[in-house]
Design brief:
about 75% helix, about 0% strand, mainly alpha
């Protein structure tokens, strides 16, 4: 206990206690029978307006691990780490154009999950199950990464062992169980305001303490030059295609995840989503500022055990203990919000598309809510066990695969909003081809997100997930043509609005 930073820890505990109280209070916020309907527990009653949705989607899109990992990546590889900026620029026009259509279909038919939409569109239980299982599996390592982000700041305050993370997630599990989606929606207000304060103070005070941004970029450039190789303040010519495909693929995958779609389905109107697509780019500005902390770590001449330590050590070194504690609390709370929404999204998928479809088709609305509550606890326990008993690298590797996998649900979910040409058989085989080829390619490349293709004596490096998506669509199209030739055209299902 002697190594604990008591001032920072005290500030941390104060804000953590504040959001815990808010989490339990949320069951009574925006009144509705939380335990009597999955719409109430899992989607907050589908009543969130523009500002609540803005904080909620921002809270589960820009996570604790983002605050830790983006500066760490910039610290490690330089300009390459900024791919997250164009990716979050690309994603919002997509959200503006597509997500209101998806919301209308879900709202009209009472759908809670992406797999509900897919089943309603194609009337295929197999395709529904494929989308549901992909969403659940892709979410688990993502929750584990939130725990890793929280663990980094807890360690920075001098706490050792696993008990602080276990305690934090027991509290998270309890108020998510009682309040459902209302809890992270309410807490997201505090989390986002704290993150904005931390980042805006950091990008002013840190360069001032270090001699200005010129000194920051100069120190980072000197460090990358000493390393040699592919790192640097600007992209090398051979990195451009990889950078572009990584940004595009990540953008297409971002709103396929259960947690981001949960925020969409919980909105009260299609206009709410459009307004959020206009307002959410404010987080992109924030993300760019967060990424610069990776360069600032070089200017501060920090000695780091891991690139993930860049942000915590930077705050410990350049700020008083009370502000470091405030920053660490912001990051830790930034883990609770997305972890809660992720577990709710996974629970909704299991309840609607596994339990109701295969175990108890006659389940009541209250029964659905009860199953989802229990499932959300199981998901959190699974994620906690993941980081307690397996090497951290497994979570990192599986999160990479999770992004690749969730991208393969894009054709089944999005194409049906615009055309009924694709057949379920084609989309299912396309999904399998994308999952299989993408997983094998990433695994054989040492779990790297990029693969290389040699054509005409030149080598082209690209994002594996996007390559798998192209294969997915091609297989889906070919199989659809074959099936249409063999079988009469089926009049599709019900889901379009």
């Amino acid at each position: 206990m002697a190594g604990i930073e008591w001032v920072a820890f005290s500030v941390f505990i104060f804000f953590f206690a504040l959001v815990t109280v808010m989490g339990f209070f949320a069951a009574r916020w925006k009144s509705g029978p939380v335990s009597e309907h999955l719409d109430e527990w899992g989607l907050g009653g589908r009543q969130f307006g523009t500002w609540i949705t803005w904080f909620l989607i921002g809270g589960d899109f820009y996570t604790a691990y983002t605050v830790i990992a983006v500066p760490a990546l910039v610290y490690a590889v330089g300009a390459y780490g900024f791919f997250a900026l164009p990716y979050t620029v690309i994603v919002y026009p997509f959200v503006f154009a597509v997500m209101p259509m998806l919301w209308k279909v879900a709202h009209k038919n009472g759908y809670v999950t992406a797999a509900d939409v897919v089943h309603g569109t194609y009337n295929s239980r197999a395709l529904e199950l494929a989308v549901a299982l992909t969403g659940m599996v892709a979410t688990m390592p993502y929750i584990a990464l939130q725990l890793i982000g929280m663990g980094v700041v807890i360690k920075a305050m001098g706490l050792t062992g696993e008990w602080p993370i276990i305690a934090a997630f027991i509290i998270l599990a309890l108020y998510t169980y009682s309040s459902g989606l209302r809890a992270p929606a309410l807490i997201a207000f505090v989390k986002d305001i704290m993150i904005y304060i931390v980042v805006l103070v950091a990008v002013v005070v840190v360069p001032y303490r270090l001699g200005g941004y010129g000194a920051v970029f100069s120190a980072a450039n000197d460090a990358f030059t000493a390393k040699g190789g592919a790192t640097g303040l600007t992209l090398k010519p051979g990195q451009l295609l990889a950078y572009a495909t990584l940004a595009l693929g990540s953008a297409l995958a971002a709103f396929m995840y259960p947690h981001t779609l949960t925020g969409v389905f919980a909105s009260k109107s299609a206009d709410t989503i459009r307004k959020n697509a206009i307002l959410l780019p404010a987080y992109t500005l924030l993300l760019g500022l967060i990424a610069l902390l990776g360069y600032m770590a070089y200017a501060a001449h920090l000695k780091l055990g891991s690139p993930n330590d860049a942000v915590p050590v930077l705050f410990q070194t350049l700020f008083p203990s009370w502000f470091a504690g405030f920053a660490f609390a912001a990051i830790a709370i930034g883990a609770l919000v997305p972890a809660a929404v992720m577990s709710i999204g996974a629970a909704n998928l299991f309840t609607r598309n596994v339990w109701k479809s295969y175990v108890d088709p006659a389940i009541t609305h209250a029964g659905e809510a009860a199953v989802a509550k229990i499932t959300s606890l199981v998901v959190k326990v699974g994620a906690l066990a993941f980081i307690l008993f397996l090497p951290t690298q497994y979570a990192l590797d599986l999160q990479l695969l999770g992004g690749l996998w969730i991208l393969q649900t894009f054709p089944a979910l999005v194409f049906g909003l615009f055309t009924r040409w694709f057949r379920a058989e084609g989309l299912l085989l396309g999904w399998a081809a994308g999952i299989g080829w993408g997983t094998w390619t990433a695994w054989s490349n040492g779990m790297k997100p990029l693969a290389s293709l040699a054509l005409g004596g030149d080598s082209y490096t690209f994002f594996v997930g996007l390559g798998a998506l192209i294969l997915n669509i091609a297989v889906a199209a070919v199989v659809t043509v074959i099936v249409q030739m063999i079988l009469p055209e089926e009049k599709g299902a019900t889901a379009r609005s």
